[in-house]
Each structure stands twice: as structure tokens, then as C-alpha cells.
Amino acid sequence: MPDSRVTASVNICVIGSGYVGLVAAVCFAEMGHLVVCVDNNEDKVAQLQRGETPIYEAQLPELLARHRNKGVTFTTDLAAGIHPAEAVFIAVGTPQGNSGAADLSYVEAVVSQIAQVMNGYKVLVEKSTVPVYTNEWITRCMHRHGVAPEQFDVVSNPEFLREGTAVGDFLHPDRIVVGANNERSADLLRRIYAPLTEGRYYEQADALPGPCSAAEPAKLVVTSAQSAEIIKHASNAFLAMKISFINAVANLAESVDADIEDIALGMGLDARVGPRFLRAGLGYGGSCFPKDVAAFSWVAEQQGVDFRLLSEVRKINERQLDLFFEKIHSALWTLRGKKIAALGLAFKADTDDIRDSPAIALIRRLLDAGVKVTAYDPAAMAVAQRALPASESMMYAADPYAAAEDADALVILTEWKEFASLDLHRLNRALKFPILIDGRNLYSPTVMRDNGFTYVSVGRPAVYASTQGRPRRNPAE
Ligand SMILES: NC(=O)c1ccc[n+]([C@@H]2O[C@H](COP(=O)([O-])OP(=O)(O)OC[C@H]3O[C@@H](n4cnc5c(N)ncnc54)[C@H](O)[C@@H]3O)[C@@H](O)[C@H]2O)c1
């Protein structure tokens, strides 16, 4: 079996060891490259050096254990990462600034630092999500710091991984996009991704299984740097639009007693529409969609292009949270002093990331309205406690049933698999009133009614259970 790990290895530096940088660094090592991952967060680097993964991400601990101190090392010393590298991947954060535009100050800081320690030709790769023309700004910044044009090229290589399945997405990508303005730099990126695009990686006995194979390897598309930058923003804006679209249809469905799950099924079976990102619910969140829609909107505005569709996408998304809050309010009549169990804190399932999480935003609103919240999440409790410290009104429980104990209602805020298969009898007995308000449509209304619940979801008629005749709760249970 050919082993891509011992052939055509490239020296790579990845700057930033967050959700993208860490996954990229470990996966490049898995593909056979020699990687130095640099971060200026000393605690994070120390954790990684000890072999601990600072984030919750499936398969990452296993791959880190396989390659740590072999294919990948971690340091805070930028020069130590840059000096041996042919390619330098910049994977630092690009959060939303006040105007909606991406805040590129972390990228600029890194580029200035790279310029100070250049020791020969290198390709600087934008892995962070950045607005169009960032490649030109990076080039200008390098020149301002006295680096000669022939010493570097800038390439855009946007990342499409999804938190929760990041490692699988990286090694089995739908596509790899390389935005390069010359052949020399495009060729280096082709070499780096060759184990995936030539299929060699998938022939290895211990390759991570996934949709790509030696017969159907990953596809690499080369474009201009500007096009690659736009591909990333446009892809995220399109997916956000799909979510807002189905949420708008859900609101319509609700007003005419139709069922959004049936509607989404019927729409998604059309191959041109597709079933993914057609789930009605609380709306999108996370560290990408909200800021990328805002940044893309800002880009369009700067270029004088009328792209109001993007502001509608955002408005529908924000309204979705208001509507859900109203649902809770009307199901409970009044809110002050009520006790609500909240299942889910992460912005989506299979991650501990709570950045821009609709669950956190909703809980904040409940707390502001005088509600006492007891929350449970399988992975995000530790991170959430930094944003919402435990108090008399904000409590954390060890499991969904403990959260539900004596609560006036239970709300589902994140689509974790385990929330879709709760023991409904046990849940019903734990709650003070069997009211479940589901922001992720994890249950069938009929099943919930048959189990004695009042069940309110998104884009489907609510069902009401009579509490008369409900067995008395035995506090000892
Ligand atoms: N998270 C995702 O799902 C995802 C997916 C695709 C693209 N992206 C994009 O990738 C980029 C990174 O996102 P993330 O979620 O990994 O962010 P993150 O906040 O998890 O990680 C960023 C890391 O960069 C480090 N850093 C910041 N400044 C530094 C410096 N000067 N030197 C060294 N390290 C520095 C931080 O300490 C942090 O560890 C963003 O542009 C984001 O939009 C994210």
C-alpha cells in the first residue's frame, strides 16, 4: 500500500490552533506533511503539547495522539514555525466588526509578524474566512514591511469544514478551492493536497473512512484569489439563506395548520433543492454564518451592489428567536418566577462551541424575563458557564431528567441526538407540567400528545394534552 505520509512531504506552518487551525494542522500531518502549529495563547499551546484537545471535536483526540511530536508540533514561537515552512496557513479569527465588516486585525497582526521573520520564498495561505481583496491587502502589508515581491505569494484556500464533523470534512472534502494568481503558488497547494486529490491517502490501511476513495478522490478547483474569497462568503450566505427560507415557510405553514416537516421533505426530494439545511427551527448561529452574512453584505455595499436579500436573511433569522420566545411565553402564560429546563447550549449538535449560539441568546432572554433556568448540554456546559455563570436563576444539571425536575416546561434548543430519544414517560413524571417547546422539531406532535405532553414546535400545529388524570408525581422517583 502506498503511504502518503512518507512521500512528498511539505513543511507547513499553521498559525492559529482553533477549530480550523488545529483540525487543519492535525489533518495535514495525517496526510504526511510536517506541521508546526503556532498560537499566541500560551495555555492552549501548553494543553496541546501535553496531548490534550482544547475543543470538543470527534476524531480529533485520536489523530492528535497519532501525530503529536511526530508530524505535528505546537509552539508559541512564530519564527520557529515560519523558518522551515514552504506554506504558511493563516487560521486566526475574523470576527464581526462594528460596521458588519470582518475585523481583520488578527490577520494583519499575523502578517506583520510573518514579515519580520521571513527567511526565503513562502506561500502565505488565507485559511481564515476573509472578504474579497484580502489577498491584495496581505501583499501590500508584506511590501510595507519591506518583504520583496519575489519572496512570497498569497493564496486563498477557504475552509468548508463543519464543527462536529470537522476532521472527516477536512480529509473527505466536497471540494478544495485554491485561489491563486500564479502557477508557482497553485502548484504548491496542489502538492499539499495531492494525497487527497490523487487518492493515495484513501488507500492507506488506517485512513479515516468517508465518502472519498482512491477511485473517487477529492476534487481541487483552482480559481483566482478574488473568486476563492467570494466562493467562501457566497457559500455560507447561500446556506444561511436556505435556513431562513425554510423558517419563513415554517411561519407560513404554522398559520395555515400545515406541517413544515412534510413540506421540507417534499421540497428536499427535488434534487435541485436538496434536503440539507432545510430544517426549520430556532435559526442559524455559530461563529460563521451570522458574521459571514454580515461581512458579505458589507462587501456588496462597498462595491455598490444591491444585495438586500442578505439583510432579509439576517432579519428572518433574528425574528425566529423572537417568535420562539413568544411561543414559550404564550405556552406558560406568564414568565416571571417560572422554572424552565433548557436542553442545549451549543450552537449546534456535536460541538462545544457556543459562539453566537441561539440557545445562549434565548436563555439570556428568559433570565431577563425573570425565569429560573436549569440547563443541560452534553459537551458545552463548561464553556457555557463562562458566558452564563451559575447562580440562583441559572443552574446546570447533570442530565436532561435532572434539568426537567419540577420545571414548568422544557425547551429544546440544540439538536443533539440524545435529545431526540428521551424517555418520555420519565420526562413527563419529572416535569411539574408536561409542556415541551421544541426549537429543533425533534419529536412527532402525535407521539408527544399520546405521551401526555403539550407540545409546541416550529412550523407545525401545537398539540395540547389535558393534565387531568395525570398520575401524581412520586417525589422519591
Ligand atoms: N469554526 C468554523 O467552523 C470555521 C469553518 C470555516 C472557516 N472558519 C474561519 O476560520 C477562521 C478561524 O476560525 P476558528 O473557529 O478556528 O477560530 P478560533 O477562535 O477557534 O481560533 C483562532 C485561533 O487563533 C489564535 N490567534 C489569534 N491571533 C493570533 C496570533 N497573532 N498568533 C497566533 N495565534 C493567534 C487564537 O488564540 C485562536 O486559538 C475564521 O476566519 C473563521 O471564519 C471557521
What does this structure look like?
By secondary structure, the chain is α/β, with parallel strands linked by helices. The protein contains 18 helices and 14 strands. The strands form two sheets. An eight-stranded mixed sheet has the order 3-2-1-4-5-6-7-8, sandwiched between helices. A six-stranded parallel sheet has the order 11-10-9-12-13-14. Strand 5, helix 6 and strand 6 form a beta-alpha-beta unit. Helix 12 packs antiparallel against helix 13 (309-332). Bound molecules: nicotinamide-adenine-dinucleotide (NAD). Residues 15-21, 38-41, 44, 91-94, 106, 109-110, 128-129, 159, 161, 163, 287-288 line the site of nicotinamide-adenine-dinucleotide.
The low-confidence runs, each spanning 5 or more residues with pLDDT under 50, are none
Structural class: alpha/beta
Q: What is the assigned CATH homologous superfamily of the largest domain?
A: NAD(P)-binding Rossmann-like Domain
* CATH fold call of the largest domain: Rossmann fold
Assigned CATH architecture of the largest domain: 3-Layer(aba) Sandwich
Helical run tally: 18
Share of residues in helices: 40-55%
Largest sheet: 8 strands, mixed
Strand content: 5-15%
| Mean pLDDT over the full residue set | 95
Output the radius of gyration. Answer: 24 Å
Q: CATH top level of the largest domain? A: Alpha Beta
Name the strands of the widest sheet in spatial order.
Answer: 3-2-1-4-5-6-7-8
Q: Which small molecules are bound?
A: nicotinamide-adenine-dinucleotide
The domain tally reads 3
